[in-house]
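Dataset card, provenance and construction

Sequences and ligand SMILES were collected as paired inputs. For each pair, a complete structure of the chain with the small molecule in place was predicted and serialized as structure tokens. The example below shows a pair involving adenosine-5'-diphosphate. Curators did not alter the output after generation; any descriptive sentences attached to a record were derived from the structure itself.
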Amino acid sequence: MSGLAVTPVLAQLSDDFFGDRQGAADRCPGNNELCPGWIVDNFTDYLNPLWEHVLLSVIPLAIGFVLATGLAMLAHRYPKLAPPFLAFVSILFTIPSIAFYLILINVTGRGFATAVVALTAYTQVLIFRNVLTGLREVPQGTVEAAQGMGMSSRQILFGVELPMALPTIFAGLRIAASSTVGIAGFAFFAGAGGLGQSIFADPRFRGNVVAASVLMILLAAALELAVLAVQRALTPWQRAVSR
Amino acid sequence: MQAATLEFRHVHKQYPGADKPAIADLSFRVEAGDICVLVGPSGCGKTTAMRLVNRMIDLTSGEILLDGRSVMERRPAELRREVGYAIQQIGLFPHRTIADNIATVPKLLNWDKTRTKARVEELLDLIGLDRSLGRRYPAQLSGGQRQRVGVARALAADPPLLLMDEPFGAIDPINRERLQNEFLRLQGELRKTVVFVTHDIDEAIKMGDKIAILKEGGHLAQYATPSELLMYPADKFVEDFVGADRALKRLALQRVRDIDLWKAATVRTGEDSAAAKAKLADADLPYLLLVDDRGRPKGWLSDRALSGERIVEDLRSSADPIVEMDDILRDALSDLLAADTRYGPVVDEAGAVRGILSLEAVGHALAATGGHVPTATELARESAAHDGRATADGLSSGSGSDLARS
Ligand SMILES: Nc1ncnc2c1ncn2[C@@H]1O[C@H](COP(=O)(O)OP(=O)(O)O)[C@@H](O)[C@H]1O
Ligand SMILES: [Mg+2]
């Protein structure tokens, strides 16, 4: 998805993407150079897009996690459902986001909701696959022992299988987190703002591109770390082993 | 809770889609407090038979009665919480602490916290694990410790019946032996009814009060005590399965106290020599065993020790090997052979001499006629009848080892 290819779409979606150069570049001597001083002066201009980007990442991740985990649990319980489910979430992932937005705009209109729907769809395959793998990797002997002690299938799913699958589930969630931050860079096509909008607002000005991109990278790293922290808090037995 | 009786009555099990039954007309009865071992080659239906009991699988026809009540009348979850279950894979929950693992069934039964905690500590003590290990996770324990926890978890709610499917199958031989011994000791205290599955006939002989040998297709080949099985195998299959060394295997079933020992002539230093010599007439072995003032063996006396009026401490050889009454006959025989001798004093818990274990006595136990054990004197007389040598010394001089080696 190059900037060139999407330019006509952009024009259709919005008329304010390529507005003025924000007057900013004028103040930078090298015009399109990096201009760290300019970045410092204009840093606050990025806070709002950053916050939008945070929401565009966290909300689809949260909804996507619940949905994909539910689907995976169903597919685990009824193994015949697994192949069609996997095919479905895989296809979702291959839809280019612009096409996705164009389709959704007729349903959900331009804006945040459209972006969230599409971004949630993209998280599905990564989380679904890992939850299902994690559930399937629970050793047969452990499940058998649980059955033999009189645990119900619900007690086994929530008390044994899901906790034991957590490391694999969280691995999927981490990949989904950085992937979502990246794909959310195109959410402005749907009119949902985000740091992508800042980049495309002045793509030739290196200072602008670098500032917005670095924020995206930092956001992705922060989300991954947050997921990792939650994982560590929820899986104390894993630390106990490596100690 | 006390132990339950378990009875299989004409039980059949055919898996859906299978062309042959996995269990065919299986009937046997396990008395309360007994260990019943299901043994047989792989695929003969041992695991299936065991799982029919706690309804992890439902039988096709027939009846399984737990304390006289058909298991088919019971709700599976409730039944399983009442029947202990331990398997080869152990299946500890890696995400729960050892204490939480052991508390699995008490929690399912909604025991209160205090009672559960007390029970967990009691079980940790019972399996010989330090209480502080209760806070660890399974991955922090050794394989043997994990297996013990698996057994403790199965025992947690004090079930009247315990099902164990090859529980020590994945443990190295040395630790397996230790775990077997520990379990037998535990069982001595708990007296549960146990169904124990194994494919190892030696384990079956060691663990079982009763052994059910299954053959292909879940047919019961023989149901008997270990010694009956070894002495009177029902057919060629059982004979082959127990092995050509079945006579020797019986040694593992008996303890030294179970067989007729030879009478020893024991003396103390300072005793009157003439009186000591007179004791020999009564003994089964023509040598005097010197003991200390508490009756513990010191060694075999030399002739010089008797030359004076009173006995002095002059030994021809040490008393080794010293055998204990509770030793398994196989181990005691091994001790004799390792020490390159034919006799060893047998001592009780206090270490005092109770008799003499000899190769002849072991051989007689093996012959299993159950009759009288010939003494050295009798044997010597027998051999004298053959070759004209009239002294009991003929026995030991022939071996060129044992007492004469000093
Ligand atoms: N769930 C099952 N479905 C169909 N057949 C089974 C199942 N479990 C075991 N069997 C078959 O039943 C027979 C007995 O198996 P099993 O009880 O596991 O034997 P063992 O424990 O003695 O090795 C085997 O032929 C096995 O293939
Ligand atoms: Mg088996």
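Derived descriptions for this record:
Residues B 15, 18, 22, 40, 42-48 surround adenosine-5'-diphosphate (ligand 1) (CB under 6 Å).
The first strand of chain B starts at residue 6 and ends at 13.
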